[in-house]
Amino acid sequence: MKAVFREKYGGIENLEIDERPRPKPKRDELLVEVRASSVNPADLYIAMGVPWLVRLVEGVGRPRKAVIGRDYAGVIVEVGNEITGFAVGDEIYGEATQTWAGFVCVKAKNAYRKPVSLSFDAAACAPLAGLTALQAIKKAPTVAGKRVLVVGASGGVGTFAVQLAASMGAQVVGIASTRNLEMVRGLGAAQVEDYEEPESLKSIAPCDVVIDTVCSRNFAEVLPWLAEGGVYVVVGATINMNSLLGRFAGPAGAYLKLMLAKKHGRRLAIVTAKPNDGIAEMSGLLESGQVKPVITKQFQLSDAVAALAYLKEKRPGGKISLVV
Known about the structure:
The protein is of the alpha/beta class and 324 residues long.
């Protein structure tokens, strides 16, 4: 089978796309023919082995698992003999590991029915980014009737966060790049401001919840946007690669903001995405059309290295799908 893998950490030039042995499922696994995946910043970080804390999970000296990829949508071709409730031919999706390949073995706990109304590439764009956004929103007691600010509203997580908060009855404020302002407004944001316009950012009135998917600003910059008693939600997978702390500790650096938040009467919540947590709720929202993956670019698996380069260099809005 074709797969995207690396034998050592480093830049994306270390990635290879070549034939790998087709995996054999264990008794508690499903063998899935992957139809689509998606490209996430996490895929780039894992391929590079940064922040360095990633290596404690992925392997210190070299990667324990060569094939990369987190999201998948596909068709079951083999069912382990300990598994019930699934059959060959079922269309499923979710978050797993080693998904940038023609086939992947998935634990039953990481397999969920694909929403019928979604294509494979749309479904594959939802698990990691969509569930990170959902988990971020759940850090607030409620968002109904509240002002919710999404920093990085046009990104993969941000586009889901805007739609989710709006569907829950929040008044959504988005911060995005100039080229994506109208897109964010179309997703349900009542107010959208350009992050490149300082005066525009000053117009943002205090919000009850701030969901920061970028983490490029210090707490002093965020404070005026956050109402007294408000919740500042930091998306833990976000890494400031221009910072030494970011490259070393990554999400751990966000904890340094905790004392500042408490000092100013605000609460800090940090999201380190839990795989597939909330996917049943997400499936319902996707099926009903209340939430839709925003796919702005599509690549073939054979062009996966170019897809990662595009993500790194262009920082596009929405999601990049990877068709197998």
